[in-house]
Design goal:
Elements lengths: L8 E5 L5 H17 L4 E6 L6 H5 L6 E4 L11 H8 L5 E4 L4 H8 L5 E4 L22 H11 L15 H7 L1
Parallel strand pairs: 1-2, 1-4, 2-3, 4-5
């Protein structure tokens, strides 16, 4: 892929990241790291602070940005978010179809924006069912933008290394 050498910073945005979503998104991060092995992978998401240690255990992610305003219907707080992230990323990938979260990310002016929202995405997902809100399983929604990059075979196993001190709790 021609982009591999040019891309240094990649963002994956996941709106509404509970425990199940965190586990399901691991294969997406693994695929991104395989596609862009030298790039810094950043996760934008409004994940619950109680999952911080789990988010940090995902080995394919280099940086985490708690995007608290992502699900809000206003642009309150957007200016500081915009100043911190404007033109900082080569690619922003979002599985979103919602207008405001997609607009917020698009306004960060990445070189490429890949989204399930056809108004903003630089590359369109060819199958129209990917633009409908609730017609797909969450895994398909997360992986559709990765497939645009040419990644076909997704390894769906979610491997997260659990620190030794927590393994004893499971016994």
């Amino acid at each position: 892929m021609k982009l591999q050498k040019k891309v240094k910073n990649v963002v994956y945005h996941k709106l509404g990241c509970g425990l199940g979503d965190l586990i399901l998104v691991v294969p997406v991060f693994r695929a991104l790291k395989e596609i862009f092995p030298k790039a810094k992978i950043t996760f934008f998401g409004p994940y619950s602070p109680q999952y911080t240690s789990m988010v940090k255990a995902i080995p394919y992610v280099d940086e985490f940005v708690l995007d608290e305003g992502a699900g809000k219907k206003s642009f309150k707080g957007f200016l500081s978010f915009w100043k911190a992230h404007f033109r900082k990323y080569d690619i922003i990938i979002s599985g979103q179809t919602k207008f405001l979260p997609s607009l917020r990310l698009w306004l960060l002016s990445p070189k490429f924006f890949i989204s399930r929202n056809p108004l903003f995405s630089h590359w369109k997902i060819l199958n129209p069912k990917f633009y409908k809100k609730d017609k797909l399983h969450v895994i398909s929604k997360m992986i559709a933008p990765i497939r645009i990059l040419g990644y076909k075979e997704i390894n769906y196993s979610s491997v997260i290394e659990v620190p030794e001190k927590y393994l004893s709790l499971s016994k």
